[in-house]
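Replying to the earlier thread about multi-chain prediction with a worked example.

Input:
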Amino acid sequence: MSWNRNIPLLITLVATTTIVWVARSGSAVEPRQTVVPSAFATASTGRIGAKLDAVFTGVGSCAASNCHGGNPSNGIAGAEYSIWVQQDKHAEGYSVLLNDESKQMAKLLRLETPAHEAALCLNCHSPQRFEPTPTGEKIHGHLLGGVSCEACHGGAQGWLAEHVRWTDSTRVEDKQRFGFVDTDELWERAKVCADCHVGAPGRDVNHDLYAAGHPRLFFEFSAFMANMPIHWEVASSRERADWSERPGIEADTWAVGQLATAEAALDLLIYRAERSETQQDFKFTGHYPAGQVPPVWPEYAETGCFACHHNLASPSWRQERGFAGRGPGQYPWGTWTFPLVDIVTKQTLQRDVKSGGHSVTSLQSLMAESLPNAKEVVTRGRELQKFLQEAGRDFPRSKNSAGRSEVMLSLEQVAALRNAVAAAGPGVVKENWDGATQVYLALAALQRGHRDLRELPVSDSNDPVLKSLIDLRELLEFPADRDSPEDYSSTPIQTFEETLNTIRTSLD
Amino acid sequence: MAVRIKTQRSPDAGRIAVRVSLSGLAALALSISASGPQTAVAQDAEPFEYVGYQGCALCHSNEPNPDAGGRLKLDRSFSAMNEGRIFEHDKHIVAFELLSKPLGQKMQAILQTTKRGVNYKVTEAQECLACHSGWKKGEKKPAVYEYGVTCESCHGAASQWEDHHKRDSWRLVSPAEKEEKYNFVDVRNPLRRAEQCFSCHIGNVTEGKVVTHEMYAAGHPPLPGIEIESFIADMPAHWRVLREKGQFLHFQKYLETNFPGMDYDPLQDLPRTKAVMVGGVMALHESIELLSEQSAEPVWPELAVFDCTACHHDLRSPGWRQTRGYSGLIPGRPGTFEWPNALIKLAINHRAGGDADKFASEWAAFAEKKAELTAALNAQPFGSSKQLQAAAASILPWLKSLANDVAMSAVHESQAGHAIKQLLSLGPQDYPDYHSARQVLWAYRTIRSEMTTAYPTLKAPPPEETLKEAQNRGDQNLQSFLVWQNGPQKQGRQKVEDLLKKLELSETMRLNLPSTVDRQITESLPENLDAIGAYDPDWFREKLQMLDAESK
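Result:
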């Protein structure tokens, strides 16, 4: 983050202290240390969300007009909050809990409290992760700000005073020890997003919640970043996608996102599988617990949605396609998260995620059973998680202009990834919609990244690849009255394959 | 005289033609054995053995019309002796052949990719033949199994009863003795009949009759909700109910033996209406028993004993499932089939004699037992096995006794009227799913037809009658029945069909089954499945109100 305040240090210090003091006395209850409750204690560590000893001060202090709440027409710097509150969906994170859909969810679940008072919801819909059951009176004012600054940048009490002193040359480690999250770094950033958008211990959108009406979580890092209004500085003003921080970043976020999403998904799987032992002790009292989801196993949110959620039809394209790798009628696990992870690890690290003890394939076999063996899943899951964490750590990085180590794929690396996705595409798309959509998103990100690195405008209707991708997107869209791909079957799949072949011939 | 029995091609048996002389009737042309007792009855004497369809067909393949002259003058006052002829058109008889048709073969190809291996044959596997022929689990494979589902599949392996049932003294044996001593299943009792039909059409773990989710995924058509009387009418039924037979030899004693302690006249009964109500209860009984017994099997959960469309539906938001709510089940948990619950209220109301307070308290007792099942299902996805079995142990005897009470009670026109009224009234929270809606409409069709069509007037016996005269009278009554069946009964049913067609219920709800050997399930499957996907409970509620208005 660049620092170009032009204010004397002393005034800043006083101002900051005043603001913090005002914020603290303004809240109903003293900001409290959240303790890691035993329910959330798992083997997973290093996750952003797991730093529950962070203390949250609320968005009010960031929003001061001479701090981060300035006028956006004067530039991004100093206007981060203003941009965010006006344009970013995260700002509505809390208020959506008061809308009709949330009310219906609470009604169908017979939730113990309304949605906006339930930790079950607030754990993602606010910056803070709670102990299991907060009640209304413990809700702090800062929650009303939605998924605000501290949700991603870390609970601010530790770093609020410090950060006004930081400069471009402040080391990352010196920020992190105050609880500040290094969102500059793509892997860290992706992990922060994935903590809610994929899930984590205590941040579990499970199938019960889906059935009650929660929208499906399908996270793809580069697409989500593309949709998020940028509230941080871009390195230069060269014409490119609005959010593009530096050339080729869409490709970088795609690749990093694949690994980070997979790692987060594993963390959640392990958490769910470990808890399943206590499922026998869960007694449903008629009201869904408002603190956190009960242990549920098998957990259907782990399975591809549309594997089950399709009208029955005859003839069936699924029967024609066959059930490679699992028995007829068994669950396909990880259809969203894993189709292209192998390409990333093979191309950039020459590591294989599909075979060996840690493999995705062995986990898929375990999770295919009508009642997967939870213990085995935990063992295999940990191996795969370790593999992915190491992949994230070892992902090729280079020094940027400021001397920081970042993921910055070269033109050749981006092309290699893109071409590999296009080549693998036909095999992936004939399996299911999830994989096909991942292929689409991958090609979009990688082609745009590729163009960006060649200093071409990232979106161009004359680019044959991008043009074909628009056709693919139409094939993937749901019918108007559905939330599932009713039409995804043999005919569109064939068109998809043909389009992919066209794309392959136009790759440069 | 020779008798030519319908022959079927089968992979192994080739064409079988049996020629029998009159004198050879007493001995059977083929006596095929499959040892192993009927699993339904414990027997420590000789095991019951299958005799084979060809044996039954020798006698039971008379011309329908007695005037056409049979090869043998048989007493047709009790049994019309033409059952084999009728059964030639019945889909049950091609049940085995179907396995060799394209769909069966496609299933085979997919199932060969599983642990079953490349040598797996659907025409040899017990898991298929249990329903598609008569090979129940625990029994030795019958030597002849290519005739599909035939006589002994429902009436019981015949080795012990075959001789006795030919004599008119058989009418004096109690149903219990017939079952226990001779292994003759009392299919005249609507409760036993339902158990037999539902053993395949819903499932039965003990007999090895379970269509698993794996089989469905491999291509097995989904088992539709079954309303027993509708399915029976479409077979078509190869028997007459009591009121259609006229009085036969030993009639009074027969009544006393089969309807003991009855304080009503079974000849005034509406047997089909009764069977709809009894079947409605037994459908739930068998479904819950299936769920409970399957949960005790080593491979659990078995997805197929849960409602297909609970998962298999396109997602919509807002969707009617969310609007309707999940009645006590945690949202997102696999739910049991709804349709077996659709007709319970008829039986409960019948037993309560139409009294509103009694109904309320009986219904509350039922609801309490259902709540135990729901609690078992909520403990974890697919339910906790232990709790499921406990809940089943609590509700199953209650259901059986309800079914029995209805079976042993009078069902006259006023009770049928009550039933119709109940079928057409939906509470504000009632949003039946597709299969439940079909149950309602099928039940309506059966009961309404029976209510509005008088049974045939048949010749009663004079004070004194010789055997020959009795036989002649039996022939005449059979003749009258056939005329009635093709005339008033058909017309009565057609009227109700026309009403349902007018309201677009027939077509949209696919009420007419692809029955008999002439129609293939595979042909109508695409449209049937589309109809399930397109179904809207709000639309059905409206239609039911219209039907109510038209029924007045």
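Confidence is low (pLDDT under 50) at residues 1-44 of chain B.

Feel free to reuse this layout for your own posts.
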